[in-house]
Structures are given as structure tokens and as C-alpha cells.
Design a protein that fits this description.
Elements (H helix, E strand, L loop, with lengths): L42 H13 L7 H27 L4 E2 L1 H12 L6 H14 L9 H4 L1 H10 L12 H4 L2 H8 L3 H39 L19 H6 L6 H6 L15 H11 L3 E2 L6 H4 L7 H13 L2 H10 L5 H11 L6 H15 L2 H6 L4
Antiparallel strand pairs: 1-2
The protein binds zinc ion (2 copies).
Length: 379
């Protein structure tokens, strides 16, 4: 785990011993400026769906519109994965200032707000994954909030330029970030001018909606469905279906284990289209220094440090949150067997299972009222 992002400590499972989170100037991505009574407005998002799918009843879609839809989907998705995510959020490779701007333009063609906004919020996701401070954790706030709800919350609308200082020093990126929908409008106008209504509806709008949902599924589903190869102290999963839909982003547990790698598919069969394109661009010199995970991680070998095991144990224990709350009154803790069952389901074949379970049991016991421990003969 040489270069993985430092695992943030999750908030305590009430009463458990935890490492306090390191305070950081950029810990809170969005500084709340808007009126607290402001409510999220999902209507533009709903209307986009109505325009895209309702519009299909009024236009005649030809094969060229379908090809355009596929082309724009791939272009936008590449902008999301290679641009917003791997380059701006994680600095997984290097490139020229000109191509950096091209990546920002491609990213913003997906209409997911400004490039600095996206990357700054994503960095916060890695700092607080699946804790109550995570902006989009499906295990904490449910599917819909992680999928889309968090984006329209007014308190998440500002860009914290402090959290993305390394790129906020480029005025052209700040300008683009402050005009988040400029590229979207220009691209739409060009598509309409060249292809008319059918190109606009099918080629542009339907593919935009598809790009939205595929990207959002990484936040909502890739922390719920799939396998965990690495101990990451969160619920990130590897999911092959999402990896195909998102050109490689579905290998999300790999990604949380080593966020700064240019590749997210570690094994040969973990299809990562974005990485293949980046390798092609590296061959012709457009990008360089594609960061790699350590070779042992490619083989699936990981030696998690104590902080990471602690975090994994806390996440494991979190599923027993209600039980722990009741245990305070009823003096009953999750048994070793119950913890083992949950851990085995969540992290099958993990060689560190016993260490995590031992830690979880020890932590649970710090929760136990002293009288109960005495009654159980443990104190
Ligand atoms: Zn994640
Ligand atoms: Zn990431």
C-alpha cells in the first residue's frame, strides 16, 4: 500500500476506540454559503429525462444517430474517467498544459459540473469513504442519495479551490470550472446544426443521460455490489458489468486500494478501456508517466497496516450498529461467529480476515458496560 491515499478514520461506532480524523483545511469540500432553507431542485434532471426519452417519440432515429450516441457516450465517459477522475482528482499520469485543457473540456462535455468541482469533491470521497462524512455513501445514506441526491444538495454546489490547489493555479481551468455548462451548450448546438433533431435527441441527449447514470452507478452500486479483493476500510467493490459500462471504473475496490494508479483493472481480464486508450496516448507521447500499482498489488497481495485493519474492523462493526446500541441496554454483543460470517461474505479468501475480526471483537468489547464484562467473566 505504498502510495495509496491515507485511509481516513471513520467516525466512531459509538463508544469504540478510534483514531481521530486529522483536521484538514480542505476536509469539508463545500463551504456552506447558500441559505440553509434552500431545498434541492431535481427538476432540471427530471426534465432532461423527459426531453431525451419523450423526444424519441417525435424524431426518426437513423443508424447515424445511434453511432453518434455511441461516439458521444464514449467521448464523454473518457472525459469522466481519464479527465475528471484519473487525471484531475488523482494525478494518475502527466500531460501537457494543452492536453490537460482538452481533458477538462472532454470531462465537462458530460455535464457533471466544473472540472475542479468534480475533482475536489471526489478527493473528499476518498478521504471519508463510507463514513458519515462521505458525500455519497450508499451504505450510509441510501441508493438514491449516493446516485444523484447529493449532487443537487445546495451545500455541495461550491468548488473548494483549496482542496484542488494544484490545478486551481491554472486560470484556464478556473475559467472553465466557473462556466460549467459552456461546453455542454456548444456541443449541443454543434450536434443540432450538423444532424438536426434526431441527432440532438438520440445522439446527444440520450447518450448524455446514459453517461450520467453509468457514472453515478459507481457511487451508488460500486460500493454495494461486487467483490472486495483488497482491504480498503470502505465498501468499494469490483464489478465487471460496471467496468464495461464505464470504460474501466467498475474495478472500484482496486481503485480504492490504489487510487493514484492510471489503471483500475489490475488483472489481464479486468477490462479497462480508459487505461488502454491512455496507453495508446502514451505511445504517441500525448500523455506520460502512467502511474502503476506496486507489482504485488497487481497479483492481489496486500499488507494492510494497522490503521487500515482498524478501519475495516470499524466498517464491519458498523453493520451491527443497532445491535451495539441495544447491547448497551441488553449487554449483548455480536458474537465471533456473526462477525466471522459477515466478514467471510464480504471479503472471502481474504488472508487478513482473522486479524480484522479479532480487532472488531476487541473494539466491540470496549463498548460493553463494565458490569456486563464482569458478568461474562472478562473483567
Ligand atoms: Zn468510491
Ligand atoms: Zn477515485
Amino acid at each position: 500500500m505504498a502510495e495509496a491515499a491515507p485511509p481516513p478514520a471513520p467516525e466512531p461506532v459509538a463508544g469504540a476506540t478510534t483514531t481521530p480524523e486529522t483536521p484538514s483545511a480542505s476536509a469539508s469540500v463545500s463551504v456552506r454559503k447558500a441559505n440553509d432553507t434552500e431545498t434541492p431542485n431535481p427538476w432540471p434532471f427530471y426534465l432532461l429525462h423527459v426531453a431525451a426519452f419523450g423526444g424519441l417519440f417525435f424524431v426518426e432515429v437513423g443508424p447515424e444517430d445511434l453511432w453518434l450516441a455511441l461516439g458521444l457516450y464514449m467521448m464523454r465517459m473518457f472525459g469522466v474517467t481519464a479527465g475528471y477522475h484519473r487525471y484531475f482528482a488523482h494525478k494518475a499520469f502527466r500531460t501537457s498544459r494543452v492536453f490537460q485543457f482538452v481533458l477538462a473540456v472532454l470531462a465537462q462535455s458530460s455535464a457533471q459540473r466544473g472540472v475542479l468541482w468534480w475533482a475536489a469533491h471526489h478527493r473528499a470521497h476518498h478521504r471519508h469513504s463510507d463514513t458519515d462524512r462521505d458525500l455519497h455513501s450508499p451504505v450510509r445514506k441510501g441508493f438514491w442519495h449516493a446516485h444523484f441526491g447529493w449532487i443537487i444538495e445546495p451545500q455541495n454546489h461550491d468548488t473548494d479551490y483549496e482542496a484542488i490547489r494544484d490545478f486551481a493555479k491554472y486560470p484556464e481551468l478556473v475559467w472553465l470550472d466557473r462556466n460549467p455548462f459552456l461546453v455542454v451548450v456548444v456541443l449541443g448546438a454543434v450536434v443540432f446544426a450538423i444532424g438536426g433533431w434526431s441527432a440532438l435527441v438520440m445522439g446527444y441527449l440520450v447518450s448524455l443521460v446514459a453517461t450520467y447514470h453509468a457514472t453515478f452507478c459507481i457511487n451508488s452500486l460500486a460500493h454495494v455490489h461486487g467483490r472486495q479483493r483488497f482491504v480498503t476500510g470502505d465498501h468499494s467493490r469490483n464489478n465487471w458489468l460496471l467496468a464495461i459500462a464505464t470504460m474501466g471504473e467498475g474495478w472500484h475496490n482496486n481503485h480504492h486500494a490504489f487510487p493514484n494508479a492510471a489503471r483500475q483493472g489490475f488483472k489481464w481480464w479486468e477490462f479497462d478501456m480508459t487505461y488502454l486508450i491512455l496507453r495508446g496516448l502514451a505511445l504517441v507521447g500525448i500523455v506520460r508517466d502512467l502511474r502503476q500499482p506496486p507489482p504485488e498489488m497487481i497479483q492481489g497481495i496486500q499488507i494492510p497496516g494497522p490503521a487500515l485493519l482498524e478501519r475495516a474492523a470499524q466498517q464491519l462493526l458498523h453493520d451491527f450498529h443497532d445491535r451495539l446500541a441495544r447491547a448497551r441496554q441488553e449487554w449483548r454483543l455480536p458474537t465471533m461467529d456473526e462477525l466471522r460470517k459477515l466478514a467471510a461474505r464480504r471479503m472471502p479468501k481474504n488472508p487478513h480476515l482473522d486479524a480484522i475480526i479479532d480487532r472488531a471483537v476487541a473494539m466491540a468489547e470496549t463498548w460493553m458496560p463494565q458490569q456486563a464484562l464482569q458478568a461474562a467473566g472478562k473483567a
